[in-house]
Structure formats: structure tokens, C-alpha cells
Design goal:
This protein is mainly alpha-helical. The chain is 65% helix and 0% strand. 48% of the residues are buried.
Length: 798
């Protein structure tokens, strides 16, 4: 048998002890630094990225992240979070507590660090397994564009966290099983003058540093401790994402590769972790299939056994091709039609089978490494080949983040193969040089593509715009983009009203609404049963005041959702209550809102924003039943209604802590009933989520004025105008503040600035006339400056 000759860790894999300068640079501490630098170059920009797509369910609207009670639910209540991955959600919980709120920078930073840590551990594992070109393989994993989705998308924390824990577990087990040796300490030249002392020290040295000159990692020698560490870290990896359940099989394949056979000592230690993996995998599968949870069931997953087998070959070949040629990369790839009667569609499976059989057949001649690498790649893809249902299959059979684990095996195999080929066909010096050039070019190409592609993930709008540009047949992309345009239209109109430019706001609203309608109709042309698109069209019709049309879309949405067995799709019923409210049917709307609250215990933890909007909608309708003016001296009947209103808004803010509208509405009411401190707390919460929120700053100035804190109000308004110089009401209110403290000339200047932006702005014209006529009445509390002595809107200290 001719085994592949083992190469060292350098770029080209030279065999001399010292190695070339490039090999020395990519080994030891310098090699680790370069790997970390590569990760930073690729992903440092993600620290500026926002939340996207389902980050709301995982992070921003996840009520379990707020309290210690929520932490308990993460671990003990299946269904409290979108998936039962308690380690992943605990990491989000810890972030939330540490930052006292939401901070996407922190979440992106943690993902980056976890990926960097995995790269370093992977390098050490491959090096100690004596995989040729180990450093290059780790570097390619660090920068490969297919991994952008896992690192730049906060929701995919489950990938980055499970990876670092899974690789750590692997490292412990390989040491436990003797598949990697404890490295010897670096040789130090003996000084005769100190040799006696050195020998004495050697007798007292019970432990050696793990890792030699490379990354220092101290591990215990006791096999029981190593095995215990393996079990602990493997369990934590499973609780981060159960896709790592394949690790025991991977370890068996590594044992076969290194030893040439499998015995009881290889199999028995892996029985317990395999049982644990099967158990947690069953929980994940149940949640994925259950209509009450994830809901990956129904006609869209009605795939025959031959089709699933064919799909396994297609997905395996797809990921291999993307790892070799990472272009184009798309957030939502086309979902091709499966046709078991087409011979062409069976070719990928045939190719995979032939390649696997060939690798196994030649293992006695070229070594077991090739066969082991191919089999490990297949095993890592097993959970996402299509044999079992998972939700993203509804949109596409493939997704980049599914290849995160399998990419390691493929890249290590590819790198080792090139290193071996160069060594067999060229001289050592030539092979090192050629290998360095190939590795350098590959890394440069990957870094370039990764940096450019990562900016698609900066926020939801550019993500879906890029997706639709590359995959015009993405119905989920068209639906999501349509929903974004609806929200943009509403925001533009609200801003137009706030800035006294209703006409322009209406134009922008109608333009966005027209775009939304086009995209949503396109989504339905691509997928006639897309109940999400019908629901968005119902929202659009409601915003336009077309109630009958909205109801028709809702009926279709409910019908399609029922056909797809999506029990948790309750949005149409919620919108029905809003339609009743919009039609002035107050009692019917209240009854519908209260009826829907029965679903809250079951679904609110997974769709908190929807139920928060339900509570907010109920509060809005209840306000219509207040007969007299709202204030401290309300009649008992009105006070009772207001108590209910406050309760609904408060519950809304608890259900979805990062949802801004209920906080603003609650703050406005608190100002009205003269509870400024409580109002300020709500406004602080808003600014913690959106530090430039115009409404919160404007209301904060209102509170300060009610407290006669004109300096604070002025500072708040000036801060608002720095971030939003088009917000005309702020000029008027600032002028009012300046007038009240006797600074009439400066007040007139602010009003002139507003009139320069809009000459017919009535509020500014009226106040200017009053000031010039001397008919306004400044407060007796005079201030010498509008600079704040203390800002009530600033976050409270510890």
C-alpha cells in the first residue's frame, strides 16, 4: 500500500524542519494572527450591519431574552423560541443583559469572534491530524464566500456557536482516542552550564504545554477528563444546533482513516453521544414538522422517496460546485422542479456515487485520506440533503448556510489533494512556490468576493433587492420586498404629515404602494398559493381604504394557509380586527381583538410583534370609548377605559420590547395625563433602540417644556434638527422655547429657517406674527442658555 506522504503545516507542505520563510510565517503564533486578520478583513464591516429577515423572531422581538424568567423558558419550554436551541438563545440572552438592550453591533461581533475561534481550532485539528496544507484549508474556511450567510446573519449564530463547540468537542475526543498525539515541547539547545539544572527541572515537570510553538492549548492527560470534556462540549454544540449530530460518525471515519479499521474501542465511546444526538435531533424534527411550531409540512413538502434520493445528489453536487466556484451566491436560490422521470436529473446523484465509490476503491493504493474526506463531506451534508423536511425547503432546496459544516471537509480535501499533486509532480522547491501562488490567488479571490457579497446583508432592503436581481423568480423575495415597500410608504406619509408636507408624503406613499402591489402580484404569479403575499396585499388594500378588497385577500390568505397546514398563520384574523376598526365598527373590533388573545399563550413567544400589534390595536380602538378629555381629572367611566388602554399598551411593550410604536403611543398618553417621568422612561427605551428617532426626541422636548426645563427642551430640539433638518415642527417648537426664555431674535431666526424650507408653513407664520406683535407670554422661569444642564432623555446610569 502506498500512503500519501504526510506534509507539514506550511503553505506548500514542505518537509524540512525549518521550512521556507512563507511556511514559517504561516505556522505558530504568526499563522494564528494571519488567520484572525483574514477573518477581520472579511467581516469587520458587519459590525455596522442591521438586523434582517427573521432576526426579529430570534432577537429583536424575542421576549424570552429580557428576564431571568425568559432564560428559564429558553431551557425548559419547547416552543418558547423558534427552535429548541437553548445554547444559541442563551448567548442572545447574555448579549441583551450585557448591553442593556438591543445592539446589532454586539451580535455581529460575537458571530465574527466565534467564526475566528472556529478557524483557529480547525487549523490545530487539521495540523495534528497531519492533513497536508492544514493552514491553507483553515484560511479558506475563514474567508470562503459561502460562509458569509453564516457569519453576517445574526440568526445564524446557531451555525457559528455550534461550530466552535463542535470543533472543541472533536479536539477533546481526538486526544482521548489517541488519534492526535500530544505534541512534544520544542527542542532547546542544551547549555552545559545549565544542563544539570535542566535535568532536575525535567524530573519535576508533570505537564507539557499543548501545541508547541503554535497556539498554546493546555489539555489534561487523564482520558476520563478528556472524554467528559468531549461529552460536555458535544452536548452544548447539539443544544446550539442539532446539525452537529453527525459528529460521532465523523469521528468514526477519522478513526478508520488513521487506524485502517474500527474496533470496539472506537465504537463504544461514541454510542452515548450518538443516542444524545438522535434524541435532540428528534425534538428538532418534531418542531420542524409540527403545524403548531415551524410547520414544515403540507403539500409543499410532498416529495416522493425517489425525488428525495435524486435531490440528495443534486444538493451534494450543488454545494461542491459552489465551494469550487463561489459565484453567483444568492440569499434565496431558485427552487428547481424535481422530475424523477428525467434521466438528466439523476446525473448529479450518479456522479456523487461514482466519485464516492472510486475514492473507496483506490484507498489501498493512494491512502484512506481521500475516501475518508469524501465520506465526511457527505455525512456533514446528510441533515440538509432533503431526506427530512425543514422550513427553508419551501423557498429553495439549498442555502449557503447549510454548507457551513460540510465546507470544512471539502476544503481540507481539496487543499490536501492539490498539495499532494504538487509534491508528486514537481520538486519540493517548485511545489512550495506553485502551492504558495495557488493558495494566495485562491485566498485573494475569496476575500474579494466575501467582502463584496457581505454588504448584501447590511439591512433587509438591499438583501432582497440583490436577491431579486439575481433570482427574479424568488417569490419569497418579491413578497418580502413588497412588505418593505408598504412600510416605507406608511413611514413616508407619516413623515409628510409630521413635517407639514402632506402632499409630498402622499406622493411618496403612493409610489411605494404601487411598487409593493407590483412585487406582491409577481410573487403570486410565481407561487399562486403564497398566502404571505395575499396577506400583504390585504394590508396594502387596508392602507388604501379599500376594505372589501382587503377582506377578499384575507379570505384567500386563510384558505391557502389552511391548505398548506399552517395553523400558526394568524395574521389574517388580526388584520380582520383592524379592518373592523377602520370601518368604525368599534364593538365588533374590540370583540375580535379580545377573541384573538386566546392564541397568545401558544404563539406569542414565537411571534411577539404580531401579538404586540394586536394589543396595540385593541388599545387604539378602546380610546374611542373615552367620552371626555383625557387628563388627570377624567370621569370614572373614562378612567376605567383608560386603565384598560394603558394595560394593553404596557403588555404590547412587554411582548415586543423593541417595537417602537406602542412605546411612543404610551409616552404620548402619559404626557397627556401629566406623568412625565413615566413618559420619559418610554422615550429612553425608544432611543435605546433607535437613537435618532425623531418622534421620541420631539416628545422628549414636550416633556421638558411641561417641566419648565427650557434649556433641556432646546438642547433636545437642536439635537433633533442636527439629525433631521427637514423636520419643520422642531423649528417651531424651538422658537417657542427661545421665545419663552426671552430670546426673541433667535426664535425669529428658527422660524425663518422653517419658512425658508416651506414658505407657506402656517404654524411658523402664526408664531412669528405673535412674537413680533408681542402677544405671546414667556414663562417666568428664565434661562440664559439652551444648552442642557441635565438631559432627561439620556440613558440612566447604573
Amino acid at each position: 500500500m502506498v500512503d500519501a506522504k504526510v506534509l507539514d503545516d506550511g503553505i506548500g507542505g514542505g518537509s524540512d524542519v525549518e521550512g521556507t520563510p512563507l511556511q514559517r510565517l504561516t505556522s505558530g503564533a504568526s499563522g494564528a494572527v494571519i488567520l484572525i486578520a483574514l477573518v477581520l478583513v472579511c467581516y469587520i464591516s458587519t459590525l455596522q450591519f442591521e438586523y434582517i429577515w427573521d432576526d426579529d423572531a430570534y432577537v429583536t422581538q424575542n421576549a424570552t431574552l429580557r428576564t431571568f424568567g425568559g432564560l428559564s423558558r429558553i431551557w425548559t419550554e419547547v416552543g418558547a423560541t423558534p427552535q429548541y436551541y437553548p445554547m444559541t438563545f442563551t448567548s442572545f440572552w447574555l448579549e441583551r443583559q450585557a448591553t442593556q438592550g438591543l445592539n446589532p453591533r454586539v451580535s455581529h461581533g460575537v458571530n465574527l469572534l466565534l467564526h475566528a475561534g472556529s478557524v483557529l481550532i480547525l487549523w490545530q485539528i487539521l495540523k495534528r491530524l497531519k492533513v497536508p496544507g492544514a493552514w491553507v484549508a483553515a484560511a479558506l474556511f475563514a474567508v470562503h464566500p459561502i460562509n458569509v450567510e453564516s457569519v453576517a446573519w445574526i440568526t445564524e449564530r446557531k451555525n457559528t456557536l455550534s461550530m466552535i463547540l463542535g470543533l472543541s468537542a472533536m479536539f477533546f475526543y481526538l486526544r482521548y482516542a489517541g488519534l492526535i498525539e500530544k505534541p512534544k515541547p520544542p527542542e532547546v539547545p542544551i547549555n552545559p552550564a545549565t544542563s544539570k539544572k535542566a535535568n532536575a527541572d525535567e524530573d519535576d515537570d508533570d505537564e507539557e504545554e499543548e501545541g508547541g510553538e503554535a497556539v498554546q492549548m493546555s489539555l489534561p492527560d487523564d482520558p476520563r477528563r478528556l472524554y467528559a470534556l468531549f461529552l460536555i462540549f458535544f452536548a452544548m454544540a447539539l443544544l446550539s444546533k442539532t446539525a452537529v449530530a453527525v459528529l460521532p460518525i465523523v469521528l468514526l471515519l477519522i478513526a478508520w482513516w488513521k487506524n485502517g479499521r474500527l474496533g470496539a474501542k472506537d465504537v463504544v465511546p461514541l454510542i452515548a453521544p450518538l443516542v444524545l444526538a438522535i434524541g435532540l435531533g428528534a425534538i428538532t424534527s418534531h418542531l420542524e414538522h409540527s403545524p403548531d411550531y415551524v410547520g414544515a409540512t403540507g403539500p409543499e413538502w410532498d416529495i416522493s422517496a425517489p425525488q428525495r434520493l435524486m435531490l440528495a445528489g443534486q444538493t451534494t453536487a450543488f454545494y461542491a460546485l459552489k465551494l469550487v466556484v463561489p459565484h453567483p451566491l444568492i440569499f434565496n436560490y431558485p427552487r428547481w422542479t424535481l422530475n424523477a422521470a428525467s434521466p438528466i436529473q439523476w446525473l448529479p446523484l450518479l456522479s456523487v456515487l461514482v466519485a464516492t465509490a472510486g475514492a473507496i476503491a483506490v484507498h489501498r493504493r493512494v491512502g484512506r485520506g481521500l475516501a475518508a474526506g469524501v465520506l465526511i463531506y457527505l455525512v456533514c451534508l446528510l441533515p440538509v440533503m432533503g431526506f427530512v423536511n425543514f422550513l427553508p425547503m419551501r423557498f429553495s432546496w439549498v442555502a449557503d448556510h447549510f454548507a457551513y459544516t460540510a465546507s470544512i471537509a471539502f476544503l481540507a480535501l481539496l487543499t490536501a489533494g492539490i498539495a499532494q499533486l504538487l509534491r508528486r509532480t514537481t520538486s519540493e522547491r517548485t511545489g512550495d512556490a506553485v502551492g504558495a501562488v495557488i493558495a494566495g490567488v485562491a485566498l485573494l479571490v475569496c476575500v474579494t468576493i466575501t467582502v463584496r457579497y457581505s454588504f448584501n446583508f447590511i439591512s433587509s432592503r438591499p438583501l432582497w433587492e440583490a436577491t431579486l436581481k439575481q433570482n427574479p423568480k424568488s417569490w419569497i423575495g418579491a413578497t418580502s420586498f413588497g412588505g418593505i415597500l408598504i412600510e416605507k410608504g406608511k413611514t413616508d406619509y407619516s413623515y409628510g404629515i409630521a413635517t407639514a408636507d402632506r402632499e409630498r408624503g402622499a406622493i411618496e406613499r403612493d409610489k411605494n404602494f404601487a411598487g409593493a402591489e407590483l412585487w406582491l402580484n409577481k410573487a403570486l404569479s410565481l407561487n399562486p398559493y403564497a398566502y404571505e403575499a395575499e396577506y400583504q396585499l390585504a394590508r396594502l388594500a387596508l392602507e388604501r381604504g379599500k376594505y372589501d378588497e382587503s377582506v377578499q385577500h384575507l379570505l384567500k390568505a386563510e384558505q391557502f394557509a389552511a391548505q398548506m397546514q399552517k395553523k400558526s398563520f394568524l395574521q389574517p384574523q388580526f388584520l380582520t380586527a383592524n379592518i373592523l376598526a377602520a370601518q368604525g365598527k368599534t364593538d365588533d373590533a374590540i370583540a375580535k381583538f379580545r377573541e384573538l388573545q386566546k392564541y397568545e399563550p401558544l404563539y406569542a413567544s414565537r411571534a411577539p410583534a404580531i401579538f404586540a400589534q394586536l394589543r396595540m390595536g385593541l388599545a387604539d380602538v378602546l380610546l374611542r370609548n373615552v367620552a371626555g378629555p383625557i387628563g388627570p381629572e377624567m370621569k370614572p367611566a373614562d378612567a376605567a377605559v383608560m386603565q384598560d388602554v394603558f394595560e394593553q399598551y404596557a403588555i404590547a411593550t412587554e411582548l415586543a420590547p423593541s417595537l417602537i410604536p406602542p412605546k411612543l403611543k404610551l409616552a404620548r398618553l402619559l404626557i397627556t395625563i401629566e406623568q412625565p417621568d413615566a413618559a420619559l422612561q418610554q422615550l429612553r427605551d425608544v432611543l435605546a433602540i433607535d437613537r435618532n428617532n425623531t418622534d421620541a426626541k420631539y416628545l422628549g422636548a414636550d416633556v421638558a417644556m411641561k417641566l419648565d426645563q427650557y434649556d433641556v427642551a432646546g438642547a433636545q430640539l437642536m439635537n433633533l434638527l442636527r439629525t433631521d433638518p427637514q423636520f419643520l415642527p422642531a423649528y417651531v417648537k424651538l422658537a417657542d422655547v427661545l421665545n419663552k426664555v426671552g430670546r426673541k431674535d433667535e426664535a425669529i431666526q428658527q422660524l425663518d429657517q422653517a419658512l425658508k424650507l416651506r414658505p407657506n408653513y402656517e404654524r411658523a407664520i402664526k408664531l412669528k406674527a405673535e412674537i413680533q406683535a408681542g402677544t405671546t407670554h414667556p414663562s417666568t422661569t428664565q434661562r440664559s442658555s439652551t444648552q442642557p444642564s441635565a438631559d432627561p432623555m439620556a440613558p440612566e446610569g447604573p
